[in-house]
Amino acid sequence: MASAKFLAYSLCDKLERKTVEGVIGGFLSNGWAVKETGWSAKPFDGSMPAFDRGWDFEINFPDALSSRVEFLTFGDGIVRARARLQFKQALIFSKASRHVAHLISSLDYYYGRSHWASVEPSVHAAQYQNAYTMAYVTRTISGGLDSVVYCVGNSRFWR
């Protein structure tokens, strides 16, 4: 589960001090294949903070069917980073469950404990916040896919 822990730790610290190139460089140094794709706003984005560029990457995370990491930047700072990992839905042993457990553990350590709650029968979420960043993790099971979304936003841009 090095990918989940790396993802959590690479994004949960002060985003204004990080660059997209630096975070992507960390993924590459871990041996994950990274391919930049065209960014576009998603239907579920809703309201977004001011930003001047969007980035979207396909990343070859272990065990996932597909993995994407998206960044919104303003100047050189990261405003928001969002990762979406999709797994085959499992009947007994879920790879998504392991990723979520490692993400939650890492974020609990960084931010302090959060509550893992059911938003709907097939959607579960946890939220975190400190003076610099706010984050959430969701897990959705639908249509044979087990999806995990991890999003971190720079608090300065979301207030």
Structure description:
The chain is of the alpha+beta class. The chain has four helices and eight strands, in the order ααββββαββββα.
Give the arrangement of secondary structure elements.
Blueprint: H1 2-11, H2 20-29, E1 34-37, E2 53-59, E3 66-74, E4 77-88, H3 95-111, E5 117-120, E6 123-129, E7 133-142, E8 145-154, H4 155-158
Antiparallel strand pairs: 1-2, 2-3, 3-4, 4-8, 5-6, 6-7, 7-8
Helix pairs in contact: 1-3
The main sheet orders its strands as 1-2-3-4-8-7-6-5
Oligomer description: single chain
- SS class: alpha+beta
Average of per-residue pLDDT values: 82
User: What share of the residues does DSSP label as strand, in percent?
Assistant: 35-45%
- Outline the low-pLDDT stretches: none
Count the E strands. Answer: 8
**How many domains?**
1
Order of helices and strands: HHEEEEHEEEEH
The 3D shape can be described as globular
Distance between the termini: 33 Å
Helix fraction, binned, reads 25-40%
Number of helices: 4
Major sheet description: 8 strands, antiparallel
Spatial extent as radius of gyration = 15 Å
List keywords for this structure.
alpha+beta, 4 helices, 8 strands, 26% helix
